[in-house]
Amino acid sequence: MFKISRKLSFIILIIYLLFYFNSCTDDESKKLEKKNLDFPSRQILNANLTLHDSVYIKVKLKSPLIEEYEFTKTPFTLFPKGLKVEFIERDKDEPIYLMANYAKIIESEGWYEAKNNVVVINSDKDTLKTNHLFWDKKLRKIYSDDTVKIYRADGVTTNISSNGIEATEDFKNFKLKNNKGTLPYNNEVDKE
C-alpha cells in the first residue's frame, strides 16, 4: 500500500485550508461589494450650497438631505427630501428657480431629474408646474411626459399640456404635447 508521510499530509492540509479560506474570502468580498452599492458614500444634512464662477455666483442650492452614491457603476446624487435652487445668470435681473420634493442628478451624463410638485420660475416670472421633469444639461433642454401647466407672468395666459413638454432650459421656447389653454383676447384688434 501507499503510505503518505506526515510531512506530506501536513502540506496537503495547509494547501487545502489556503484554498478554502481564499474562496470564502472572495465570496465575502463579493457580498460586501454589493452591499456598498446600497448606501450613500456621503450625506449632507441641511445643505446650503453656493456654486461660484470666479467671483460670480451661479447657483444657490438648499436641501434638507443630499446623498451621494459614488461607488455605483454610474455615480449619482439624490435629494430625497427635496431641494430649492436658484440659477443666476449674469445678464438677467431675476434668477431661474427650481423647487421639487425629490431630485436625482447623474452628473457624468449631464442628466437631471426632478419629481413631485416640481415648480420652475424663469427670469420672466413665467411658472411651470408638473410632477416629473428632466433636464438634459448637454442639450440645454427640459423634458416631461407628465401633465404640465405654464402660468405666464401676464396673469391671464395659461398653457396646459396633458402629454408633456419639450423646451429650452429657461422654458421661453417650448413645444407642448396635446395642449390646451387660455389666451388673452384683444377686442381692440377686431375694431380696426
Short description:
This protein is 19% helix and 46% strand. The chain is of the alpha+beta class.
Given helix and strand content, the structural type is alpha+beta
The level 1 CATH classification of the largest domain is: Mainly Beta
Number of domains: 2
Largest sheet, if any?
Answer: 6 strands, antiparallel, barrel
Query: What's the CATH H-level homologous superfamily of the largest domain?
Result: Lipopolysaccharide (LPS) transport protein A like domain
Q: Biggest sheet, strands in spatial order?
A: 2-3-6-7-5-4
Q: What fraction strand?
A: over 45%
Distance between the termini: 121 Å
Shape: elongated
Uncertain runs are none
Which architecture of the largest domain per CATH? Sandwich
Multimerization status:
single chain
The CATH topology annotation of the largest domain reads as lipopolysaccharide transport protein A fold
Rg is 28 Å
Share in helix? 10-25%
**What order do the SSEs take from the amino end to the carboxyl end, as H and E?**
HEEEEEEEEEEEEEEH
What would the average pLDDT be, to the nearest integer? Answer: 79
- Compute the number of strand runs: 14
Helix count equals 2
Task: Note the main attributes of this structure.
LPS export ABC transporter periplasmic protein LptC; alpha+beta; 14 strands; LipoPS_assembly_LptC-rel; 19% helix; LptC; six-stranded antiparallel beta barrel; lipopolysaccharide transmembrane transporter activity; 46% strand; 2 domains; 2 helices
